[in-house]
Write a structure and sequence with these properties.
alpha/beta; 8 strands; TIM Barrel; eight-stranded parallel beta barrel; globular
């Protein structure tokens, strides 16, 4: 990957959006309008049902796009959010996608049966690292086909574990499978959400696939920067704090 070229692209795309305060803002988008593009994430292993129900209330209060939960919590979250306009997203194969294709497909179908509106599907990292792209593509294709007309599919792109060649292959595979989104995940990278990563994905896939990104987003300014770079959704845990900050800017 040509880092200098990528940085130049980011500068051209995002630079004109800089305000006098040094923050990135997407033209016509007000801070409080970004709430509808947040996905409230509840994937920590210590999240008990009481916590999940409390966070569903947060999602309702701020009218975020979706709440992302483990498959076990899909039915409970669906009931808690019924009629409130907040989608339920299930994390399929989280975090590494390394179970069998059949197991992952069954998990996805069961989540849709239980009310999941969206699926964040972990690509099989072990298959990719073994050079067996056909295996990784097979399970993603099966889930995408099963979800067609039933749920939005987001292919999880855990980019930090891949070589440059593997990154390109995974993204092209996701696009060919017909996913709705690529989710740029920073679960293992430790560096957090980055505008350059968004621009890289857009460089490979163009505008045919939407982009979700996560990774330590804690301020309105950071969220606006990522949206300005081309993100369509942001996954985060600091939803209440950012939402309060955004509402205060009305």
């Amino acid at each position: 990957m040509d880092i200098e070229k990528l940085v130049d692209e980011v500068t051209r795309e995002v630079g004109p959006l800089l305000t006098g305060s040094g923050k990135h803002e997407k033209p016509g988008v007000k801070p409080w309008e970004i709430l509808s593009r947040f996905e409230h994430s509840l994937l920590n292993p210590d999240a008990g049902l009481e916590k999940v129900m409390a966070e569903c209330a947060v999602a309702r209060r701020y009218s975020v796009a979706a709440i992302c939960v483990a498959p076990y919590y899909v039915p409970m979250a669906k009931e808690a959010l019924r009629g409130r306009g907040v989608k339920v997203c299930a994390a399929i194969g989280f975090p590494h996608g390394c179970m069998s294709a059949l197991a992952k497909l069954v998990e996805a179908v069961d989540c849709m049966k239980n009310g999941a509106d969206e699926l964040d599907v972990a690509v099989n990292i072990l298959a990719v690292k073994s050079g067996r792209m056909a295996d990784a593509r097979n399970d993603l294709e099966q889930i995408t086909a099963a979800a067609r007309g039933r749920a939005v599919v987001k292919a999880v792109f855990e980019h930090s574990v891949y070589s440059d060649e593997e990154k390109k292959s995974v993204l092209e595979m996701a696009g060919a499978c017909g996913v709705d989104y690529v989710k740029i995940q920073n679960f293992l990278s430790g560096k957090g959400a980055d505008a350059e990563d968004i621009m890289y994905v857009k460089r490979i896939l163009g505008g045919d696939v939407k982009i979700k990104i996560d990774g330590g987003v804690k301020t309105v300014a950071k969220a606006l920067e990522l949206f300005a770079a081309g993100a369509d959704r942001i996954g985060l845990t600091a939803t209440a704090a950012i939402s309060e900050e955004a509402e205060a800017k009305r």
